[in-house]
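[job 4471] stage=fold_predict status=RUNNING
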Amino acid sequence: MSLFQNKSDYFLKGEDQLDVFHLGAHGCDVMFSRYEAGTEVNAATNPNHSKCLVIQGRLKVRFHDQDCYYTTGDWFEIPSHTEYDISYESDCSIIEFWFDAPRTA
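[job 4471] inference complete, writing structure tokens
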């Protein structure tokens, strides 16, 4: 039995399907992601706070009108409800931790 869910159960289908594996945890989703050089994510916003570890590669994250560069071994964070852009400058492998939004009463 695999610890990983079938990615086709929860991500894009066909050509747009990402190379992502998902490991669920209480209050946090853990994803093992791979992005090809030249991939860009523009004007994205997520309800979840995320912390990411770059396992391989180099990427640029832009938010609050500032460019930040990350490479193998670096951690970066994207606060919830924050618009950001990501540009993968080389093939990248990332471990992504997406934390559930705080519950409100």
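[job 4471] summary: The chain is about 0% helix and 55% strand.
[job 4471] exit 0
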